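>> received
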Amino acid sequence: MELVAIVLLGLGIWWGQAPAPEKIAERIILLPSADGSRSAVVVSGAQGDRLIDQPYASLEITPSGSLKNTTLSASEVQARYATLLEVQAPRPRSFLLYFVSGSDSKLTAESEQALAGLQAYLQTRPAPEVTLIGHTDRSGSAAINDALSLKRAQSVRDLVRQAGVSTDNVPVFGRGSREPIASGAQEGLNRRVEIHVR
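>> returned
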């Protein structure tokens, strides 16, 4: 049986008919990072591991597990996968809101303005996953700062709710003064709430 298949395959090539290429079972394409930073993916298959580390580099995987590296252009990816790209989840985004010293709910003037942008952004997302992390400066005791940072995060949760986002499953954390982003006991940049939206 194998001899017949080999002979037929040989006759097909001799008559100018190459065997049909093996179908592609899966294609993995590395899309460029939103911020332009480098990224990579390692794919394991029957032929070992392959690295994809350039934007629009692709790896085609056949049903037998063989791997073939290819590169597509941005326009090819857009043309082939427009529907998938349209329904792709938006990239995660982070915001910072800063507080007046000692206050658990009063935002700085700049953060009051930024709040409107945050609320508008949240309204564009159909079902955002929001995480809130409160922080303080180092001017109080650890116990006071832990409680204050949690209250700040809770007050931002209320502001998120005002944007029409359900906050039933929004995790809220208070980190006190343990994660400063600026030095100095009363540094205003440390009196903040991080808002992570996915």
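>> The beta strands are 26-29, 41-45, 48-52, 57-61, 67-71, 93-98, 130-134, 172-174, 192-197.
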